[in-house]
Specification:
By secondary structure, this protein is an all-alpha fold. The model has no long low-confidence stretch (mean pLDDT 82). Among the domains are: 1-24 and 38-47; 87-149, Alpha Horseshoe (Serine Threonine Protein Phosphatase 5, Tetratricopeptide repeat), CATH 1.25.40; 217-307; 314-389, Alpha Horseshoe (Serine Threonine Protein Phosphatase 5, Tetratricopeptide repeat). The chain has helices at 2-22, 41-97, 100-110, 117-130, 134-148, 152-164, 168-176, 186-199, 202-214, 220-241, 244-252, 256-259, 262-274, 278-289, 295-303, 310-322, 327-339, 343-356, 360-372, 376-388, and strands at 28-32, 35-39. The chain has a two-stranded antiparallel ribbon with strand order 1-2. Helices cover 78% and strands 3% of the residues. The protein is built from 20 helices and two strands. The longest helix has 57 residues, at 41-97. The chain is rod-shaped and about 155 Å long.
Length: 389
């Protein structure tokens, strides 16, 4: 609009000055090197006006061409981006269908123009692994890492893929590079619950289990069984690598709540027996038996190899007053009497145990007693009873 106004002003000036200049045209001389140009003032003004119009037209044309190219480039860019979005969506759907080859092709092709190229490369890495193409997987992971500078999403995806291949050491290495806040995520805890037992990191597994239970990843029953199994393996590892002193030291440093769980206590006693320190096992077991006539503790007591089992026998006999109807306790006392060749006492205890809860172990013990007492018919009878139970 401004340019049109200028043009109208110029025309008006021309119309006003034209008649006055018609009688006195004057002239204009332009000299350049050996060239000279002469023209009237009117012709010079007209030529200037023409040049001005050509200049305006040239500027308009240049602006139109620039806008056309810009719009064309923006259109092509928008088209490529839209195509990348479509390919990414189709690739994700192909992943859900299990068409990993097609998924990898689509998401990797769309990565260049994607709004989140790292996501495309991570999806392509997972698709490549599902096809068993580890080199391509590592290449995609490297590209994603380069784009995000070891972003948490890349490390977690990498750990998950390594865990699928049961490469536990590499998966743990990836997880350990995560920021501390990420370790609180339920998904990370779930992966650690697979990694720690596989690598024999029992103390770390024991520390993780309460957090997993609190987060609802495992129920209470599963938590107790996993905790007992973890302690069992930890005690055995300490017994085999460092001896009974390490087992005793670890037991003394444990929380009271865990010491009260008889399964864990029995595991500690068995580890001491495994290390050959039956005396230490009996010392720990004796303190526990005074408070709990638990079946697991009684089973461990039966495994003790004491040079003098008499103190243990006396302690168990004293427990009968508190637990007169404990069949397992009576059976164990009968076994200890048999070890000391006290056949009549052993017979009495075995018979009492069988009356309460018949089991093959007591029948076998009673059969052995009758064999030692030279009563073959009764021994055969109880051997048959042991086989039938």
């Amino acid at each position: 609009m401004f340019k049109i106004l200028i043009l109208l002003v110029c025309i008006a000036i021309g119309l006003a000055l034209g008649p006055q200049l018609a009688g006195n045209k004057g002239y204009v001389l332009i000299a350049f090197d050996n060239y000279t140009i002469e023209m009237s003032v009117t012709s010079a003004l007209f030529l200037s006006f023409i040049c001005f119009c050509v200049l305006l037209l040239s500027l308009w044309l240049a602006r139109w061409l620039w806008l056309s190219f810009s719009r064309s480039g923006a259109w092509w860019g928008h088209r490529r981006k839209q195509k990348a979005i479509n390919h990414t969506q189709q690739g994700m759907l192909a992943m859900m269908r299990g068409d990993y080859q097609h998924a990898e092709k689509l998401v990797s092709k769309a990565a260049t123009y994607s709004d989140a190229p790292a996501l495309n490369y991570l999806t392509a890495a997972e698709a490549a692994q599902e096809q068993g193409q580890d080199k391509k997987r590592d290449k995609y992971l490297e590209q994603a890492t380069r784009l995000t500078n070891n972003d948490s999403a890349v490390l977690i995806t990498q750990a998950r893929l390594q865990l699928k291949q049961q490469n536990y050491s590499a998966a743990l290495s990836s997880i350990e590079q995560l920021p501390h806040d990420n370790l609180k995520q339920a998904a990370i805890k779930r992966m650690q619950m697979s990694i720690f037992p596989a690598l024999g990191l029992w103390q770390r597994y024991i520390d993780l289990l309460p957090l997993a239970n609190k987060a609802g990843l495992i129920d209470n029953q599963h938590y107790q069984s996993e905790l007992s199994e973890a302690y069992k393996n930890l005690f055995l590892e300490l017994a085999n690598s460092q001896g009974s002193d390490a087992v005793a030291t670890h037991w003394n440093g444990m929380p009271r709540k865990q010491k009260k769980q008889m399964t864990i206590a029995a595991a500690a006693c068995r580890a001491l027996i495994t290390s050959g320190d039956n005396a230490a096992a009996y010392q720990l077991l004796g303190d526990l038996l005074n408070r709990h006539a638990d079946i697991e503790l009684l089973e461990v007591a039966a495994e003790l190899k004491l040079s003098d089992p008499h103190p243990l026998l006396q302690q168990l006999t004293g427990l009968i007053r508190k637990h007169p109807n404990n069949a397992d306790l009576l059976c164990l006392i009968g076994q200890l009497h048999s070890q000391q060749q006290q056949w009549s006492e052993a017979k009495e205890r075995f018979e009492q145990s069988i009356k309460l809860a018949p089991n093959s172990q007591c029948y076998q013990g009673l059969a052995e007693v009758h064999r030692q007492l030279d009563e073959p018919e009764q021994a055969i009878h109880y051997y048959r009873q042991a086989l039938s139970n």
